[in-house]
Design goal:
This protein is an all-alpha fold. Helix content is about 50%, strand content about 0%. Strands 1-2 form a two-stranded antiparallel ribbon.
């Protein structure tokens, strides 16, 4: 073989020679001639494995030294390093094949089938008893088997993983061989959660999300709307003080860590976490007073509400919330509903609570987590969330006039346990023993007990007047017994442990005492409205009960320690009491011993609920007109006490809104703080445009009756409405 230079065969060599040459050692890459190779591989000792946060955000080159790096040092910017989130590894189909196989084999063993035996050996002739069981199983529809009216035999399944869950209770889905793989196919686009503030146009499979928020098709960044870390922590502190004691959405230790991490670097927050952050910021702005907002964050409260309302609705659009299976997004949406319930008109709000119910059902919140095999910590958090949505939907149904809410027999979620946050943790494997006494869950558990009461008497709700008409005294007795049972449970299990010095305990005492009284009032009023064989003593008892309800409301509204809960208290109004009391005054009822005292209480109620003194909802206008009729039509001797100031203000307001009167030009009815025309968000046109676009539909919802003059409606039908209404329970 001839000598080859450079390890390459010379021309004319045989194929054998070429093969022999190619088996020699490969030629190494020649070193750089200019001698810079050693310098290129010379890495500084203090170099970081990733770029700094500032350079990453600015999308500029970073030399990974410092901190600070050379770029930040030159531009005099703050420099910090934070490890980027790990890249998501694409899951291979064979990753969990063994786990699946073991799971399927365990299911076979649970059903008496040995997977190690031959399939032929498994075939046995079914016995008659087996045939009966098979018939019962085949009759099971929607999780309720024949002969099982309570629905104890549920056929639904909860598919959970990677922070998401989906409840499947459909014959079509159950017939699929692999529920998990089939149900997740449509969410493949959502699985790769994109980090960062920018969003993209969502897929055509979700066309309603954008139309609900009237958003444009161009993408906008939410990063500029995030507050500074210090401001975010102030909002979080306000939320924990003003909102969390009444809602208990969070396990505070875990949530605090999540919020701190996301607020420190919003660009790395997931879309679902961004929804939660803006829901917290918005709720904090709603819960604060104007003075508190200026003192705490130095911002105008109306401006913050406008800004974060637009931000949170845009965040919902970014995450395509109508298709979500992420419990964090559902949590943020229920928080959002609570924060706007005093702003939106009742009909729109009822529709939105229906959306919340559907989202909750999609992830299986309507089924108790213990029955679905969920971890103990998740069981408690899912129960807390569901029991916030349930009464919210009921209230919305009542105020909208439809009365249609989540059916009482369509869910079986138990109430949360009476535990403090310190008693539970994400990694716990056993459910802790329930505490005796007042815990962090005190107020929420009182509300769930009220919800259980309404579930118990659900067949009678809305038909209480019919019970008296039919003379069904046994049903009335059942109602009275249920009220006594609720009152006894309140006193023995919760209120006996309350300390009135603690604000949330004082509010719980007022609610615990007021709820049974309000239920009694709602039960007995239909009999009085019928006006047949009603003794004066019964009327006196009802009058005393109504005045006591006013006192509970006034005590809560005027207590300075409860001012931080005013966002919740403003949503409470004793409709039944007010309507009946005003009608009793109109007819000069003999049970009214001191009319002046009655009018003083009514004036305090109007003072505590200023929304009734301003134009707005139709129900508010009806109450104003009924109040004026009560004053004008009462016995003349009662009017000698002099016209109260609030009656004078009501009269002036009504006269101004009469047709042809001065100042009756059309005006916006609702003093909405979120209408884009009212405030500007600052010099940034992109930010203002984005929020205006994303809030259009909700601004319209706030001003739903803007084209209807509530004061000019013919309220002749109101007498019938008063006679039929059942009111809203104390919540």
């Amino acid at each position: 073989m001839t000598e080859k230079t450079g390890g390459l065969p010379a021309r004319g060599d045989s194929a054998t020679n070429i093969h022999i040459v190619t088996t020699t050692q490969p030629v190494a890459i020649a070193p750089a001639i200019n001698g810079n190779s050693s310098k290129a591989q010379d890495v500084p000792a203090n170099a970081m494995p990733y770029a700094c946060v500032t350079c990453t955000r600015r999308k500029v080159r970073c030399d990974k030294t410092g901190p600070p790096c050379s770029t930040c040092r030159k531009t005099r910017l703050e420099c910090s390093y934070e490890a980027p989130p790990p890249r998501k590894r694409k899951r291979k189909p064979t990753d969990d094949i063994h786990e699946r196989l073991e799971h399927y084999e365990s299911l076979l063993r649970q059903n008496g089938i040995d997977p190690d035996r031959s399939p032929v050996d498994q075939i046995e002739k079914p016995s008659p008893s087996d045939n009966v069981l098979l018939m019962k199983s085949s009759l099971s529809i929607g999780g309720i088997a024949a002969g099982d009216p309570a629905g104890s035999s549920r056929t639904g399944k909860l598919l959970a993983g990677r922070g998401k869950s989906r409840y499947i209770d459909s014959t079509l889905w159950r017939n699929l061989e692999d529920l998990r793989a089939s149900s997740d196919e449509e969410e493949e686009g959502d699985a790769a959660v994109q980090r960062g503030p920018a969003y993209h146009v969502r897929s055509p499979a979700d066309p309603l999300t954008a139309s609900m928020f009237m958003s444009s098709t161009t993408g906008h960044s939410l990063l500029d709307l995030h507050p500074t870390y210090d401001a975010a922590m102030k909002y979080w502190k306000i939320y924990l003080s003003h909102v969390e004691p009444l809602t208990k959405f969070f396990h505070v230790p875990t949530a605090t860590t999540m919020v701190q991490r996301a607020a420190a670097n919003p660009s790395t927050a997931s879309k679902s976490m961004e929804c939660l952050l803006f829901a917290i910021y918005h709720f904090a702005a709603v819960a604060m007073t104007d003075e508190e907002c200026q003192r705490t964050v130095g911002e105008d409260r109306a401006m913050l509400q406008h800004q974060y309302h637009g931000a949170v609705t845009q965040a919902f659009l970014n995450v395509s919330f109508l298709r979500t299976t992420d419990i964090i997004v559902v949590q943020a949406f229920v928080m959002f509903l609570l924060s706007v319930r005093n702003k939106y008109d009742p009909h729109t709000f009822w529709i939105l609570t229906g959306v919340g119910v559907r989202l909750a059902q999609r992830i299986g919140l309507h089924r108790d987590g213990e029955d679905l095999g969920v971890a103990p910590f998740e069981v408690q958090m899912r129960r807390r969330l569901f029991w916030q949505l349930l009464p919210l939907d009921g209230i919305a149904a009542q105020l909208s006039g439809t009365g249609i809410a989540l059916p009482y027999d369509s869910w079986d979620t138990k109430q949360p346990l009476n535990l403090n946050d310190e008693d539970i943790s994400p990694g716990m494997t056993e459910t802790p023993a329930e505490r005796v006494g007042a815990t962090d869950m005190l107020f929420c558990l009182l509300r769930t007990e009220m919800g259980k009461f309404h579930q118990k008497v659900k067949p009678f709700l809305g038909n209480w007047g019919r019970l008296w008409e039919l003379g069904d005294l046994s049903a009335v007795g059942e109602m009275e017994a249920a009220i006594v049972e609720m009152e006894t449970k309140f006193e023995t299990k919760y209120m006996r442990y309350c300390d009135p010095v603690i604000p949330i305990h004082f509010l719980a005492l007022l609610m615990g005492r007021g709820a049974p009284q309000n239920a009694r009032l709602r039960l007995r009023l239909p009999r009085v409205r019928a006006g047949e064989n009603v003794l004066e003593q019964e009327l006196r008892e009802l009058w005393t009960l109504a005045m006591r309800m006013f006192d509970y409301d006034i005590s809560a509204q005027t207590n300075p320690e409860l001012k931080k809960f005013s966002w919740h208290l403003q949503a409470i109004f004793q409709w039944d009491c007010m309507i009946w009391v005003l009608n009793e005054i109109r007819r000069g009822s003999p049970v009214i011993a001191d009319p002046q005292e009655a009018w003083a209480r009514i004036e305090k109620m109007f003072t505590c609920h200023p929304q009734f003194l301003t134009p707005g909802r139709a129900l508010h206008a009806a109450i104003r007109r009924l109040t004026m009729k009560g004053w004008d039509e009462q016995p003349a001797a009662w009017r000698q006490i002099g016209e109260p100031a609030f009656i004078q203000n009501l009269r002036i307001a009504l006269e101004k809104r009469q047709p042809g009167s001065a100042g009756s030009a059309p005006t916006a009815t609702s003093a909405s703080q979120w209408t884009p025309q009212e405030t500007a968000l600052g010099p940034e046109p992109l930010k203002a445009t984005m929020i205006a676009e994303s809030t259009d539909i909700f601004a319209d919802a706030t001003n739903f009756i803007g084209d209807i003059d509530a004061e000019q409606i013919d309220w002749g039908y109101w007498t019938n409405l008063i006679g039929d209404t059942e009111g809203v329970a104390w919540r």
